[in-house]
Known about the structure:
The chain has a two-stranded antiparallel sheet. By secondary structure, the protein is mainly alpha-helical. 38% of the residues lie in helices and 5% in strands. It starts with 12 loop residues before the first strand and ends with a helix. It has helices at residues 27-31, 38-54, 68-74; strands spanning 13-14, 64-65.
Amino acid sequence: MSGIDSPCVACCKLDEQDVCLGCYRTLSEIANWNRRTDAEKAEILARLPGRKAASVASEEAPTYPITRKAVLAVKES
């Protein structure tokens, strides 16, 4: 069992770059979170503040929900 929890805040909307506006992980990072080692998870977590600061999302920018189909499409084997 991993010692690093998911940063998910249950606000699952993707921007045009496939970055979640709730946790700032990419769709691929979300889909494969449970397959990552603690070191890989820590690296992802370290990138999130920068993504949040660089986010160009606004109320007018298009977003779309994260769907099961989208997650399965990027899930690594």
